[in-house]
Amino acid sequence: MIREINKKSRRQTFLSMVILSILMIIAVSIFITQSRYNLSVLQKDAFLPEPNKNQPSSPLSPNASFVPLPEGIQPLTSAETFDVRNLSDKIDGKAELYLSAGFTRLVSQRFKDEREADLWMEAFVYDMGNSQNAFSVFSAQRREDAEPLGLAQNAYRTPNAFFLTHGRYYVEIIASKVSEQVLQPLKMMAETFIRNTPGEASIVNEAELFPEQELVKNSIVLISSNAFGFDGFDKIYTAEYEFDDHRLTAYLSHRKTPVEAKKMVSDYTQFLLAYGGQNIEEKLPIKDARLIKILDTFEIVFSHDSYLAGTREASTIHQAKTLAVQLYHRIKERDNESRSEQ
């Protein structure tokens, strides 16, 4: 009996030694692995997707773009950079507007005015990829108290801020309070940015095709996606007009091909009809134009060559037709000019 107990004891001791040896081997392996760790594993970038090599890099250098600073203005914080993965950390609630418009990168930085302890400014420089995208976010957020500036093609000021586009960039420079003293430094910072930052040739601007007669000032907007609640409408320029004390909207978009433009007319027409629109048989001076009555207003949608265009929210058929014909002739004129230049 004692011999069997001793035999079991020796067997258990042997198994324990084997298990202990295995554990020691594992521990040594872990130690060796940790002693050769790659620093990149501990870096945040190691867990982020590889950058898109097809995406053009931004030449923007925030510190250089605002140098030299106006007298008395000094950096208050270092520059911060945000991309598509963390933009909402900076502008929560508005990020989708920028992302849907082609946003690439945001650089922001705060500056202080040494002459006023409670006055500081923050510059936001959004790289939107191209000038059209930059105009989209600029136009979508135009303030009611905007006062035009001559700094750039698209630029205005409010009592405490400057807003502008420069090539692919949309820029905001906002002061912490309203002060006449801060307007000159804001202007100088904007001018310095424009001077120090490479521009680019502007994309053909459909906004120039809107008829000027009865056009409401500063009403032109570029909607990047989901215009009028229709998923198929992207890159749609809109402008407001005033006829007989009533406002209505004209819109247009340059598509890749005439086939695409015609298809969008058909798809949008079906969208309106599906949501209660009524097809109106009316002789229109525009080939294949469609007239729809919806919610006691009238819409006309048509295409010409590669352009999709139309009018909406007119109170009468006459209003819708008048503006649609004016828009059609403007587009036709531009199309003829382009053909003659080729």
Account of the 3D structure:
With 342 residues, the protein is an alpha+beta fold. The strands form 2 sheets. Strands 1, 2, 3, 4, 5, 6, 7 and 8 form an 8-stranded antiparallel β-sheet that branches. A 7-stranded antiparallel β-sheet has the order 9-10-11-15-14-13-12, with helices on both faces. The protein has helices spanning 2-35, 62-65, 87-90, 95-100, 131-140, 180-196, 258-274, 317-341, and strands spanning 73-75, 80-83, 105-113, 120-127, 147-148, 155-158, 161-166, 169-175, 221-223, 236-243, 246-254, 278-279, 290-294, 297-304, 307-314. The protein folds into 2 domains: 62-196, Protein Transport Mog1p, Chain A (3-Layer(aba) Sandwich), CATH 3.40.1000.70; 206-341, 3-Layer(aba) Sandwich (Protein Transport Mog1p, Chain A), CATH 3.40.1000. It contains 8 helices and 15 strands. The termini are far apart. The radius of gyration is 31 Å and the shape is globular. A hairpin with a 2-residue loop joins β10 (236-243) and β11 (246-254).
Question: Could you outline the blueprint of secondary structure elements for this entry?
Answer:
Blueprint lengths: L1 H34 L26 H4 L7 E3 L4 E4 L3 H4 L4 H6 L4 E9 L6 E8 L3 H10 L6 E2 L6 E4 L2 E6 L2 E7 L4 H17 L24 E3 L12 E8 L2 E9 L3 H17 L3 E2 L10 E5 L2 E8 L2 E8 L2 H25 L1
Antiparallel strand pairs: 1-3, 2-3, 3-4, 4-8, 5-6, 6-7, 7-8, 9-10, 10-11, 11-15, 12-13, 13-14, 14-15
